[in-house]
Structures are given as C-alpha cells and as structure tokens.
Specification:
about 180 residues; alpha+beta; six-stranded antiparallel sheet; about 30% strand; globular
Amino acid sequence: MNDPNDPLGLLGTTVADKYAIEAVAGEGGFSTVYRAQHLIWKQPVAIKFFKVLEDANPNMREKLLEDFVQEGKLMSELSSKSAAIVQARDIGKLGLPNGGWIPYMVLEWLDGTPLDLLLRREKHQGLPPRSLPEAMRLLEAAAVALDVAHRKGVAHRDLKPANIMIQGDPRGSEATVKLLDFGIA
C-alpha cells in the first residue's frame, strides 16, 4: 500500500476472476483508476476503485457504498443513451488481505488524450487555436451528452477539460469525445 506508483497495492491482482490489473492509469481525491485486461474478452478495461471508503465510519461507509452503486447504475443508464459518456460495464467489491473491502466500477478503456493535456500539447507545438466552429464541432458530442444527463436530472459536478477524453485526430472530422468521471452525481 505504500508504493507511490501503486497507491492501493493492486498491481498483479485479478478482480472477480476476470480482470487482471496491469497498471495505474490515474488517481484523484476519491478514487484510483487502473488499466486491467478482461481475461475472457481479451480487451483492456478501466477499473475505478473508490478509495475514500477505507477511513469512513461504518454508517458513512454504507452510505458511500450505496452512492457508489447508484453512480454505477447512473453511468450505465447514461452511457446507454449517449455514446459520448464513458460506458460502465460492471461493479463490485474487492476483498482485501486485511479483511476489508473496496468497491470498484469497471469502465470501458479509452485510448485518447484528455482535453486539458491536448490543448497544452497543441500550444507547445505552436498549433493555432481552433476557430469557434472547430471548437464547437469538437465539443458538440460532450454538449449533447450533458444535455442527456441534465434531462435525467443529473449534474456532472466535475466538468473540466481533464474529464473530456478526445480519441482519434483531434483536428480531424473523425475525432470522438467521451465525458468521464461524473463522480457521485
């Protein structure tokens, strides 16, 4: 648990007999995301572990777990309504060696670049800023996905460039956009 490169000590672990954890993909205040291999489908997936439960008292822990399950349900429902919302594929609890457990959500793996990093990279490369129509074309799918969520009464709560993943050529017409990390919306 003390390895800064693996904050939850899960590298090499197999989750639910079908997800082999390969690498840490990212870490936030409430969760750590790992890249894993789906052992049956032979495809990469992202597994988001909700780490904030480790230190919560038992009553708060149950409430947070309930909220996490609702987030998974919400993500599954929203992603079925819009291709621009990351797909939730599974949810569960991983038993830990100390007898505790940590909830997780399995999401589609996205090969792409977060918008914040993409914009910094393009600026560093000296590329000109996008025109308004180009920016609107790039972000249209994210706006439509937000509209889907808002019509369901769901606010994103953490909308920022780091939570907008761009796949493909970001300056081409075939770029795709995915909204990430609705959090416990």
